Amino acid sequence: APQCPGIVPLCVDLADWDATEAAVGAAGPFELLVNNAAVAVLQPFLEVSREALDQSFDVNFRAVLHVSQIVARQMIAQGLPGAIVNVSSQASQRALRDHAVYCSTKSALDMLTKVMAMELGPHKIRVNTVNPTVVMTDMGRINWSDPQKSAAMINRIPLGRFAEVDDVVNSILFLLSDQSAMTTGSSLMVDGGFLVT
């Protein structure tokens, strides 16, 4: 807030459809949106629980669709061009052990992004994803703290490391900016080359 005094934070449970509609609908007008909320409940395929499935799709997919609808409607009503960036994952394109639900939600998010780009493009609203490898956030550290598990992943990344938050932020800033004015419906890999191995 001290760095960006014009930003007003909203605290809302994104799984609560009505509360999200009220909170986000009362804010704006918007020109830019980054959908970054996510959960990663890791379970082997044969042990996936209904609770994990519901929570993951509620946050990783349904909330993105809903918040984007609210914001895009406002952009269109105001006649404003805009940009939306959905934070996806390399897991949308590569199967990972114990990630059946997470991989599925991120694959769904990639396709949602393409459909949004197609339908919102005529309104001058661009929609893209960034698809990072493991990012050293609190969630990333929790899920990748085991040296054996992390070594196996890092060995498949040509740049030899996981992503830092700034790696992802800088990619998002590019996709929000006019520097990417002709980019929509794209997935920007921020994976250190993981998907080429």
UniProtKB/TrEMBL annotation:
From which organism does this entry originate? Answer: Crotophaga sulcirostris (Groove-billed ani)
Q: Which UniProt keywords apply?
A: NADP, Oxidoreductase
Any Pfam family from its record, for instance, is adh_short_C2
List, alphabetically, the Gene3D superfamilies matched.
NAD(P)-binding Rossmann-like Domain (3.40.50.720)
Q: What is the protein's quaternary organization?
A: Homotetramer.
- InterPro entries in the cross-refs: L-xylulose/Carbonyl_redctase, NAD(P)-bd_dom_sf, Sc_DH/Rdtase_CS, SDR_fam
Q: Which family does it belong to?
A: Belongs to the short-chain dehydrogenases/reductases (SDR) family.
Protein's UniProt keywords contain Cytoplasm: no
Q: What is this protein called?
A: DER reductase
**Higher taxonomy:** Eukaryota, Metazoa, Chordata, Craniata, Vertebrata
Gene Ontology MF term list? carbonyl reductase (NADPH) activity; L-xylulose reductase (NADPH) activity
Question: Which processes are annotated in GO (biological process)?
Answer: glucose metabolic process; xylulose metabolic process
